[in-house]
């Protein structure tokens, strides 16, 4: 059995508490109790609660966006001006996020709930990370979609991609479809979620603009 370091215990405990109760209810005292450590250890490893939250998000999101970026670069062979298949672009953006649900090493369903709460509660930490670290990759996907959908104005692509990200976040948070998930094997439900969301996204981007 692997023994977790104090830092890992603190990160895992913080992740679990956010998933269960949200960001507003999170306190250093609750984290220390959950992680079976003291306040000094949290301050030593992270400095303050905000830095701790940042690291909880970063340790999962860094890997997610690296996988997305690699998949997109594999498609366009490193040439951002090369037109790629729309469905493959969307697969590269959507599938890695949903794969995390079944990967406990990437936080699994617990982190999916954290991410859903971060969006719902408009977490400043998530907003800052998206703006400073991950926006360039998101823009790469938006540009790839623009090349694949020359019939759509950039503003239309912005809005539709925005709504696709919202649908993906909803799915990652396991909202709405839980009753259906109980009616089929977990692997089948997961694979169907990936496929249906990609097809939903393709349909939204192939419809001509109303303008």
TrEMBL record:
Pfam families: TetR_C_30, TetR_N. Residues 27-46 bind DNA. Keywords: DNA-binding. The keyword DNA-binding applies. Coiled coil: none annotated. It comes from the Bacteria. Residues 4-64 form the HTH tetR-type domain. This is TetR/AcrR family transcriptional regulator.
